[in-house]
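Review this:
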Amino acid sequence: MIFTGIDQTERAEAQQKAQEGEATVRRLLASLISAQETERRELAREMHDVFSQELAALAMEISTLPKSIEIAHPPTERLAEIGKKISNLADEMHSTSHQLHPAILDELGLAPALREECETFEHQSGIPVRFTSNDLPASFPEDVSLCLYRVTQESLRNIRKHTGATMVRVSLTSGDDRVKLRVEDTGDGFDVSEARKSGGLGLVSMEERVRLVKGKFAIDSKPGNGTVVEVSVPLNRK
């Protein structure tokens, strides 16, 4: 009986240490996500305010050069080519800035930001995306909007990289004082338990983001059956 008591005490102490270790990891991950978003926001603003605008202005200036060059054979084609490359670079930098922190999320709200993200994904990947939104409130808390946007972004990134999907459906709805996000694809699917064992940061990051806004995260996938990601977040978190 004495040994049993000692064993129970040791197990209790080990369990407490494990829980404390898990809580520490979660705090560190939450801090990392917060710091990452702050850095992304600042970098996105810097890229947009400085580099993108300067490149766009330079492209416009180059496009007017042929009219002002007074020589027999102005290098019109070459200048046009350079101007086009600069314009393309400006577009790419704008896209990168958007990925870092979507200004549309701040300016127009979650639904328009998700719709644009889906349209961009469809254009770049060639995979059709159907986006729907219903019964949404006028606005969402900033942390909820950012969480749902990042989960959608990560889900679409995974679909593009791994699944071989031919169709994607993204829906955003609200009801019962909750907002619900669903991302579904018709791809190859995967073993969720194996993905968790591998410790992929994408899945961990999505789960932690949802936990930080007191939401529920679920992912359902099997090899050959596609994947469904579902998030439900309470709108009243008092």
About this structure: The radius of gyration is 24 Å. The mean pLDDT is 78.
